[in-house]
């Protein structure tokens, strides 16, 4: 005998937990200095979302310039930051939505729509940055977009996945709330003669 169930009420905290994970990755991306780094030693270049730093091969001190002096730098930072702020708002709304006993599924679908907006803002920022950085900032040696930039993309991918789940969750409202009886499937009639 197999009991089929799509979701359970106790599992409702997985989506807010995933949004919290996306927030943590977004914080790492915003604060990290590893958006662009030298690929191998000597490490002479590194950049964050906010500034670009270089140093000579023998020098220990970094010389940094703000990317906020460039229009594209402000645009990349602003779009990623706006997406991050909306993500934090969506997280708070998701915690509120899943905390109440009577889950408002139209409210949940609205959170999914906002998450698509978050993903759009973050993608814009993540695309502007490498394109304009490589065009306008002189690069020294072999460089790569590194771990903090990767955390930015990871946060965006989690947000896109959560957006789909938030938008599709109302389709399974009865299963999530436990309003339907479980369906039992039997492999053959010989095993369940009392059903005839």
Automatic annotation (TrEMBL):
Keywords: Apoptosis, Cell adhesion, Cell junction, Cell membrane, Cytoplasm, Membrane, Transmembrane, Transmembrane helix. Its main location: other. One of its GO terms (cellular component) is plasma membrane. InterPro entries: P53_induced (IPR015664), PMP22/EMP/MP20/Claudin (IPR004031). One of its GO terms (biological process) is apoptotic process. It holds the Pfam family PMP22_Claudin. It is a multi-pass membrane protein. The keyword Cytoplasm applies. Belongs to the TMEM47 family. This is p53 apoptosis effector related to PMP-22. It comes from Anthoscopus minutus. The lineage of its organism: Eukaryota, Metazoa, Chordata, Craniata, Vertebrata.
């Amino acid at each position: 005998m197999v009991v089929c169930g799509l979701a359970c009420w106790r599992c409702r905290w997985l989506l807010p937990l995933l949004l919290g994970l996306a927030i943590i990755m977004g914080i790492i991306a915003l604060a990290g200095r590893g958006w662009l780094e030298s690929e191998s030693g000597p490490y002479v270049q590194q950049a964050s979302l906010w500034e670009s730093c270089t140093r000579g091969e023998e020098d220990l001190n970094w010389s940094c310039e703000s990317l906020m002096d460039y229009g594209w730098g402000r645009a990349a930072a602003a779009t990623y930051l706006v997406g991050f702020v909306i993500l934090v708002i969506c997280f708070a709304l998701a915690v509120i939505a899943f905390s109440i006993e009577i889950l408002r599924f139209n409210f949940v679908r609205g959170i999914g729509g906002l998450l698509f907006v978050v993903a759009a803002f973050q993608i814009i920022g993540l695309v502007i940055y490498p394109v304009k950085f490589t065009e306008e900032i002189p690069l020294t040696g072999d460089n790569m977009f590194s771990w903090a930039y990767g955390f930015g993309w990871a946060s965006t991918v989690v947000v896109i996945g959560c957006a789909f789940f938030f938008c599709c969750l109302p389709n399974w409202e009865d299963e999530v709330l436990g309003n339907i009886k479980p369906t039992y499937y039997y492999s053959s009639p010989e095993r369940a003669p009392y059903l005839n």
